[in-house]
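Reopening this ticket.

The earlier resolution said the output was attached, but the attachment link was broken on my side. Pasting everything inline this time so it's all in one place.
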Amino acid sequence: MPSVSRILLSGSTDGKQLGATDAGTTIHVATSDADTLDELHLCAQNPTSADIELTLEIGGSSAPDFRTISVRAKEAALWVVRGDLVLANGTAVIAKVPSSAENNGVVLSGFCNRIVQSA
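Inline output:
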């Protein structure tokens, strides 16, 4: 029977929020264990005064490996930007904002459910 444990995003220090930059911020790198999957749940918040486009690169920087969403300005709530994203084999999730946007203007938080299939 599989076992599941909740872990922090690997890009986060002590579970703190991560700010997206134009150079790219590593949010999480999945495990490379063959019998293990990482299920990510990500939320975003934009406390700035302008809407910001957020791009999530999921294992690559060209289609179909990325998703761009608009995060509304002065959003007090955390918006779910990606739920139930299952990753394996060391796949990285990187968050980017345009160079014209304020670095760390979009902050991300979340968690990972690590699923070991041969427990």
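Reporter confirms the inline version is readable. The chain has a mean pLDDT of 89. DSSP finds no helices and nine strands in the chain.
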